[in-house]
């Protein structure tokens, strides 16, 4: 493959989050601090997750996507607890930075997903795109990272709402938000990938379906956030 | 679509379009073993660059296999269909025309800058020497089916003559001629061989259409070839003695010989058995049976038995010549008969002439020693008991002719009585000379069980050893407990199939010889491996680096990748447009243009 393909992949991987962030936070200040906290939070959270997984997760020969394998409760609990550290990291980053709520949400989610993209796909794509064999997987990874950005924004919205609405009257809607924040959002994504691979759906079709799931989460979380913001504004007026 | 704003609908459409315009799933890297043509050497190409023929260090650039398939479709048509036939033409007057020379040239042009990928049998339709100059073609990859002489290969051939499909014998002969061209003619392109089952999922030759469309890049990595002379040839002897006579001298000896080496146009593919090596298993089993008999003093024979495995058989029986010149004089003087075992199995029941159910007993005449008719007649009569027809073939020895047709001629020239048992009538049959067609992947279910031939030879030897009188009822020894074990023969054959047995590349301490030596030792025989140095008047060089690794990449053209780059920019622009909004984007563009004009 040539440099054209490399530039195409890197453009999709790096430029798209930047475009989204720039447009979403136009005219706002204190963007850099939120980005910085987001990156630091992601790096520390990932490091902690790796240490905990390596320390506590027992060795298993079973594949992740193998549902016919025996269910191991200890491994499942450890995986869920470790996954929930993402929510904690996000929450701490949101708390540390200052500024308008949208700046903080978009800044942290942009930084988080960009850091994830660079560490997961950037170097792999750089080496892979210059190999003689053409492979769509690098472009698919780059588009997948764009979809992860949507997912991350949804996730961060929910964390925000959960944090700010913490001392509100707990009701069924808050419990749903709680569940989706800690379990459903990250796990749903992984689950959807696993289920789709069970039906032998890979490549571009999987990408389209992932986008549909991510977009659904994004819309839902945005609606929840908007309704929460409206509620808050009404309370302030009163 | 209440929750899907208009801008996001467009993004969704873009994803769908992306999926639609390219639905190819990409094959990952394939790394396969390949085998290089014999006699590769450093030559200068027409462009002045030097490269090693059959090179393993240069990469073969992008191949256009699609070009091959298009040309192959074109040539698939018989000569009759290439010419314009009127419907009123009398069928009897139709004459066959060869493919015109200019069309051959057109075919060669198809491979310009590409690698020519040929299934082996398609070489029958195309003169491969046309690619020998190599100016246009970058390399040749010949795809070999695993079991070449099976019916699958027969169906593959599409060449037709007036009588209908060619017989297998003719096909084998033609392929033999092609192999001769490959060895004798100087090719300025690298030629490699690969097994069909390893590339079939990439290149499907059943209907000559590729499974995956697109270009492939073929790269071969391996050690560069070094020049190598034949330095030595090894022989393995196993001695089964009987008691000395009253005067303390050696009793008569019967020598049984077979050859363990073979030949192929690709040295790394020299592992077949049909050229004469299936006798090794028979010889080993005979040694086991007679050792069992000789261990019992009551059944100990009156003859010493010497089992010899020689190399260098495809180099005009170099190994046998060296062995006989170095063997102990006393042993040589005691030799009463030399029984040379050549190829002893048949391959396919429906073959005609090339390989038959018959065995052939060869011996020489015209020298100072005559073998007489007793031995051949005895062999014939015993073989009839086993349902095998043995034909006797005699040939007058030509002292001035250095070419050795069968192994017994070497012993005959040394004034020893010798016969060769073979299922080949003629010495120059394709498979016997050593061929790519001799690529057994496993046991052949249609082949005659080797046990029958082994029993026949054992009974023949026992008649001599135990001096059995001619009786109306023949006494057979080798039955029940003394029946030859087919498993022993098959296990030896399987072991031979694992090794490349091209003689110039075999060393004295080669694992094959050591394994055979251990086998003889396990029966209780005295064995020894002797290596003789060789110095020929005319030096023959061979080149190492006979194997490599072929990596096949599926590649896209530069234009396609540029197109992907442009599409990714379009994707970014569209995303920006729909996230920013129509009015804002237009405003920003106007401002950008305005600022540029201001700066200018």
Automatic annotation (TrEMBL), chain A:
Pfam families: DUF2053 (PF09767). It is found in: Cell membrane; Endoplasmic reticulum membrane. Its main location: membrane. The keyword Nucleotide-binding does not apply. Signal peptide: none annotated. It comes from the Eukaryota. Keywords: Cell membrane, Endoplasmic reticulum, Membrane, Transmembrane, Transmembrane helix. It is a multi-pass membrane protein. The chain crosses the membrane at residues 6-23, 35-56, 76-94, 106-127, 147-163, 175-192, 198-218. PANTHER family: BOS COMPLEX SUBUNIT TMEM147 (PTHR12869:SF0), SMALL SEVEN TRANSMEMBRANE DOMAIN-CONTAINING PROTEIN (PTHR12869). Belongs to the TMEM147 family. This is BOS complex subunit TMEM147. It comes from Anaeramoeba flamelloides.
From TrEMBL, chain B:
It comes from the Eukaryota. It is a single-pass membrane protein. Keywords: Endoplasmic reticulum, Glycoprotein, Membrane, Signal, Transmembrane, Transmembrane helix. Signal peptide: none annotated. The keyword NAD does not apply. Gene3D superfamilies: Zn peptidases. The chain crosses the membrane at residues 558-579. Its main location: endoplasmic reticulum. The keyword Ion transport does not apply. It is found in: Endoplasmic reticulum membrane. Belongs to the nicastrin family. This is Nicalin. It comes from Anaeramoeba flamelloides.
């Amino acid at each position: 493959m040539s440099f054209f393909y490399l530039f195409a992949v890197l453009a999709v991987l790096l430029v798209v989050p930047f475009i989204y962030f720039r447009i979403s936070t136009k005219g706002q200040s204190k963007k850099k601090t939120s980005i910085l906290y987001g990156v630091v939070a992601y790096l520390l959270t990932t490091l902690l997750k790796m240490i905990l997984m390596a320390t506590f997760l027992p060795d298993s020969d079973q594949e992740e996507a193998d549902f016919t394998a025996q269910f191991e409760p200890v491994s499942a609990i450890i995986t869920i607890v470790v996954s929930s550290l993402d929510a904690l990291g996000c929450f701490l980053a949101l708390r540390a930075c200052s500024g308008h709520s949208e700046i903080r949400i978009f800044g942290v989610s942009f930084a988080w997903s960009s850091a994830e993209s660079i560490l997961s796909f950037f170097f792999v794509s750089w080496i892979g795109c210059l190999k003689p064999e053409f492979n769509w997987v690098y472009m698919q990874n780059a588009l997948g990272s764009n979809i992860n950005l949507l997912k991350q924004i949804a996730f961060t919205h929910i964390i925000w709402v959960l944090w700010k609405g913490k001392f509100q009257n707990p009701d069924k809607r808050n419990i749903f938000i709680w569940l989706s924040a800690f379990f459903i959002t990250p796990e749903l994504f992984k689950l959807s990938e696993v289920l789709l691979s069970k039906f032998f759906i890979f490549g571009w079709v999987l990408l389209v379906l992932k986008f549909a799931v991510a977009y659904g989460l994004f819309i839902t979380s945005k609606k929840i956030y908007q309704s929460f913001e409206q509620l808050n504004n009404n309370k302030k007026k009163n | 679509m209440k929750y899907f704003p208009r801008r996001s609908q467009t993004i969704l459409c873009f994803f769908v379009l992306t999926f639609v315009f390219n639905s190819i799933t990409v094959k990952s890297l394939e790394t396969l073993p390949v085998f290089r043509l014999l006699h590769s050497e450093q030559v200068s190409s027409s462009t002045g660059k030097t490269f090693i023929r059959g090179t393993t260090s240069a990469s073969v650039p992008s191949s256009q296999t699609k070009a091959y398939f298009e040309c192959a479709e074109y040539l698939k048509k018989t000569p009759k269909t290439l010419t314009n036939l009127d419907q009123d033409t009398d069928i009897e007057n139709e004459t066959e025309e060869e493919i015109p020379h200019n069309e051959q040239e057109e075919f060669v042009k198809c491979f310009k800058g590409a690698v020519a990928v040929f299934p082996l049998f398609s070489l029958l339709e195309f003169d491969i020497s046309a690619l020998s100059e190599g100016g246009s073609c970058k390399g040749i990859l010949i795809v070999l089916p695993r079991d070449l002489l099976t019916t699958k290969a027969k169906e593959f051939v599409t060449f037709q003559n007036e009588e209908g499909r060619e017989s297998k014998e003719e096909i084998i002969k033609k392929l033999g001629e092609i192999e001769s061209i490959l060895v004798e003619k100087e090719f300025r392109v690298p030629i490699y061989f690969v097994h069909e089952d390893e590339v079939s999922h990439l290149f499907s030759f059943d209907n000559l259409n590729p499974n995956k469309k697109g270009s492939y890049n073929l790269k071969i990595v391996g050690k560069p070839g070094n020049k190598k002379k034949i330095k030595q040839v090894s022989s393995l002897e196993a001695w089964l003695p009987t008691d000395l006579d009253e005067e303390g001298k050696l009793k008569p000896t019967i020598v049984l010989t077979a050859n363990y080496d073979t030949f192929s146009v690709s040295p790394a593919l020299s592992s077949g058995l049909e050229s004469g090596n299936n006798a090794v298993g028979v010889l080993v089993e005979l040694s086991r049976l007679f050792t069992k008999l000789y261990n019992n003093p009551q059944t100990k024979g009156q003859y010493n038995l010497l089992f010899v495995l020689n190399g260098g058989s495809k180099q005009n029986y170099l190994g046998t010549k060296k062995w006989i010149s170095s063997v102990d004089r006393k042993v040589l003087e005691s030799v009463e008969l030399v029984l040379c075992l050549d190829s002893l199995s048949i391959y396919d029941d429906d073959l005609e002439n090339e390989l038959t159910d018959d065995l052939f007993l060869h011996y020489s005449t015209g020298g100072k020693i005559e073998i007489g008719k007793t031995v051949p007649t005895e062999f014939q009569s015993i073989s009839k008991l086993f349902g095998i027809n043995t034909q006797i073939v005699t040939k007058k020895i030509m002292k001035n002719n250095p070419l050795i047709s069968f192994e017994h001629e070497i012993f005959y020239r040394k004034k020893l009585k010798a016969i060769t048992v073979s299922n080949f009538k003629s010495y120059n049959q394709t498979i016997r000379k050593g061929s790519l067609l001799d690529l057994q992947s496993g046991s052949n279910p249609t082949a005659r069980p080797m046990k029958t031939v082994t029993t026949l030879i054992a009974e023949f030897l026992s008649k001599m050893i135990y001096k059995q009188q001619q009786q109306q009822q023949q006494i057979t020894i080798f039955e029940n407990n003394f029946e030859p074990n087919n498993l022993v023969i098959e296990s030896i054959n399987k072991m031979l199939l694992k090794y490349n047995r091209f003689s110039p590349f075999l060393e004295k301490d080669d694992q094959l010889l050591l394994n055979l030596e251990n086998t003889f030792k396990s029966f209780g025989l005295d064995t020894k491996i002797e290596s003789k140095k060789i110095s020929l008047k005319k030096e023959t060089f061979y080149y190492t680096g006979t194997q490599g690794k072929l990596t096949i990449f599926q590649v896209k053209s530069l234009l396609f990748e540029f197109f992907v780059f442009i599409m990714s920019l379009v994707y970014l622009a569209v995303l920006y447009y729909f996230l920013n909004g129509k009015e804002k984007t237009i405003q920003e563009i106007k401002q950008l243009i305005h600022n540029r004009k201001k700066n200018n």
